[in-house]
Amino acid sequence: MSLLVVGTVAFDSIETPYGKVDQVVGGAATYISLAASYFTNRIQLISVIGDDFPEATLSDLTRRGVNLDGLQVKQGEKSFFWAGKYHTDLNTRDTLVTDLNVLADFDPVLPDDAKNVSYVMLGNLTPAVQRRVLDQLESTPRLVAMDTMNFWMDMALDELLEVIKRVDLLTINDEEARQLTGEYSLVKAAQKILTMGPHILVIKKGEHGALLFMRDEDDHEVHIFYAPAMPLMDVFDPTGAGDTFAGGMMGYLAQTDDLSFDNLKRALVYGSAMASFCVEKFSIQRLTELDVPQILQRIEKFRRLVHFDRDKV
Amino acid sequence: MSLLVVGTVAFDSIETPYGKVDQVVGGAATYISLAASYFTNRIQLISVIGDDFPEATLSDLTRRGVNLDGLQVKQGEKSFFWAGKYHTDLNTRDTLVTDLNVLADFDPVLPDDAKNVSYVMLGNLTPAVQRRVLDQLESTPRLVAMDTMNFWMDMALDELLEVIKRVDLLTINDEEARQLTGEYSLVKAAQKILTMGPHILVIKKGEHGALLFMRDEDDHEVHIFYAPAMPLMDVFDPTGAGDTFAGGMMGYLAQTDDLSFDNLKRALVYGSAMASFCVEKFSIQRLTELDVPQILQRIEKFRRLVHFDRDKV
């Protein structure tokens, strides 16, 4: 099925304990689309860039089945730029520079082809921009997912809550789930969020994996699933891991078009697998050189990591 | 099979966001023995208390199959006492009081029955005391496990490394694994620790679960398994959770007497299940009121939490 992706397409400068890269390709929509492209080649990317963005990256995206008709190119302007430095633990980072550039007055316009998609992934952006995308849809998608961050909870909470109300699936990290609900327990936080609009919630915990909560439409019971992150020798660069996770998950859902809890579990594991590749190299590099056998091999590694026989066999 | 448990039997005063209790029963050996008693009734407890310890707790332990011949009672002296206050996140705490009392000059003496046990769990204690216990064993146990903490890495590293060299299984938390090895990556830290003596390592991550590493004797490959912590509505009191985890794990191993990687996985899940009960109430209370059906039900909950079908069925 078709997947609509909205988010940033940008440049990053990144410093981690393993090295430093300048002005490399980044952006939520880039990571999401690349990860999803291993599962579906019917992707519509909605974003904005300046005239400084590398043609090679754009043609690579196109080759992977990412339709760029909804990618606005602003002549004479610069693409969104972020610079950050990670601490030794790689779980925390300092933002050094945020240059909005073309993003400052981004008004997403959906091409006609993009108005009747089955799956929608709203990457982290101003809630007003996320809402503008939903307003242009002409039919109800099978699933609308959104990502957000604490910044919007501080700056535009009312608008954010309006968008959350309209989506089926929300992904946020553990601290954001706590901030959004005022509950320390993630189980309690999840129960509150599942009354705000979404009936599916994914709480991302970085190196500690991700929790899936789904409210059963029939009995209102909340089902829980936990997907760990793969323990790795080295995490070179965590940038984009959360977006890659979302991209793998949504790509898998668009491919399988099955919203049962069992299939959502698998989607979470596919997302975790894609994220575990993403962090192995800087920027989008590792995501551009994968193949399906490598992904399936990692899925099997995840299975062995967590599966146990309840009884001796 | 028989299980030897060494550790503190003590009093705690605990404050958490959910309340405050004074002078309640605690101690590593208490939690370990109680948790293990659901799997084996051949437990030898080695510890020391003053004459202030409640008779009811001791007779309850005896009733559960915990042999107290190795528990020294010092007349006119006081039991070990710890007071602590947990922060809102329940993952960090301040120690308010540590009164060693009888523990200051504890010299463990193993009764003859305890010198030929099959399983040994050295709870967190001065490395010298842990070593004194190993020195008294008359035959090689099937498995010797030990717990320790950062305090001994700071205060008695050489002695600690000597004991670590002699055990099969080490349990420590993530920060301690990093401190012990100087490696931030837990995979790298595990690889280093598995050259220090133990061929099995359990890294405890609190609310984020536990990682099991086992070095294969044949091909030296390191196998990894991850057991999550159960997401809970409320964690009332995390005191003793790590010891309860170790007790459940060692009790299950003593019961099944199977040291295959598949069975170690199950042991980790049983440990996690026991720990998930422990934190539901203050002190040892929840551990005294369990039954086997409740435990099996929670094991099934763990299975559902992490298992996924790799392919659509």
Shape of chain A: globular
What oligomeric state is this? homodimer
Secondary structure: helix percent of chain A: 25-40%
Provide a count of the helices of chain A. 11
Identify the biggest protein-protein contact and residues per side.
Answer: A-B, 41 and 42 residues
Please state the CA-atom Rg of chain A, rounded to the nearest Å: 18 Å
List the domain count of chain A as a whole number.
1
Instruction: Classify the beta-strand content of chain A into a percent band.
Output: 15-25%
* CATH uppermost class of chain A: Alpha Beta
**CATH H-level name of chain A... which superfamily?**
Ribokinase
Q: What would the CATH topology of chain A be?
A: UDP-N-acetylmuramoyl-L-alanine:D-glutamate ligase
Task: Write a brief structural summary.
2 copies of one chain form a homodimer. Chain A contains 11 helices and 14 strands.
Describe the structure.
Two copies of one chain form a homodimer. Chain A has 313 residues and is α/β, with parallel strands linked by helices. Chain A has one domain: Ribokinase (UDP-N-acetylmuramoyl-L-alanine:D-glutamate ligase), CATH 3.40.1190.20. Chain A has eleven helices and 14 strands. Chain A has helices at residues 28-36, 55-63, 127-136, 150-155, 157-164, 174-181, 186-193, 241-256, 261-278, 285-288, 292-306; strands spanning 3-6, 10-16, 19-26, 43-50, 66-67, 71-74, 80-86, 93-99, 119-122, 143-147, 169-173, 200-204, 210-215, 222-227. In chain A, the strands form two sheets. In chain A, strands 1, 4, 5, 6, 9, 10, 11, 12, 13 and 14 form a ten-stranded mixed beta sheet that branches. In chain A, strands 3-2-7-8 form a four-stranded mixed beta sheet. The longest helix of chain A is centred in the last third of the chain and has 18 residues, at 261-278. Chain A is globular and about 65 Å long. The model of chain A has no long low-confidence stretch (mean pLDDT 96).
